Amino acid sequence: MTDDDSSTESDRRRADCPSWCIGDHDQNENANERLHASRSVLVPGIALQPRLRGMQAGRDANHRSSAVGEVGMTDGRIELSGGDEAVGVTLSVVLHSRSGSALTWVYVGGGGPGGLEISRETAWLLASSLSELLDSTKTINSKRLFD
Q1: Which of 27, 95, 115, 138 could form a disulfide linkage to 38, CB 3.0–4.6 angstroms apart?
Q2: pLDDT (tens digit, 0 to 9) for every residue of the chain, 147 residues total?
Q3: Coil, strand or helix: which one is 65?
Q4: Which phi and psi (to 5°) does residue 37 adopt?
Q5: Which helix H or strand E contains 92, and what residues bound it?
Q6: CA 34, CA 46: separation in Å to the nearest integer?
Q7: What is the β-pairing status of strands 85-98 and 73-79?
Q8: What DSSP state is assigned to residue 64?
Q9: Where exactly are the structural domains of the chain?
């Protein structure tokens, strides 16, 4: 195979990919089973880690640390009233789909299987709803921060 042949093969494979796909697909891969994935967008933030009600103190601490780790926790913690904690997290947002599928999925999570997987259409509805809800909570002080 010449360089021109491999370039043509690569271009053909890329033509089968959505514009957001960063996959380096194997030419032996079945095109109908090809998984397309976007780059990962990392979103740093803060998440609520509720205290697990009704658990013994020792078991509570052990369960909390394992549950928090599932969402990509950093070392930052803020204790809140009622025993809850605010923890630093890094969320990963990735698009993915299979060749031939009409659906594109959006993954939001800490990189593991515990994340949220929703359709692209649902993600748009969620983004619109979040924007609407957050816009309704703006005050004079927060408006200076976010506008």
Answers
A1: 95
A2: 555 555 555 555 566 789 999 988 877 777 777 899 999 999 999 989 887 655 444 444 444 444 444 445 556 788 888 888 898 889 999 999 998 899 999 999 988 788 999 999 999 999 999 999 988 887 645 554 555
A3: helix
A4: -140, 145
A5: strand 85-98
A6: 35
A7: antiparallel
A8: H
A9: 39-146
Rounded to 5°, the CA angle 124-45-123 comes to 10
Phi, psi of 60 (to 5 degrees): -60, -50
Length of the chain: 147
Phi-psi map region of 61: left, alpha, beta (phi>0 left; psi -120 to 50 alpha): alpha
Determine the Cα–Cα distance for residues 139 and 1; give it in Å rounded to an integer. 64
15-46 burial code (b ≥16 CB/10 A, e <16) = eebeeebebebeeeeeeeebebbbeeeeeeee
Q: Which helix (H) or strand (E) holds 77?
A: strand 73-79
Q: Residue 82 is encoded by which pair of tokens?
A: 């009622």
pLDDT digits (tens, 9 = 90+) for 62-88: 444 444 444 455 567 888 888 888 988
The single residue listed with the structure tokens 């990189």 is 111
* Alpha-carbon span 104 to 99, nearest angstrom: 10
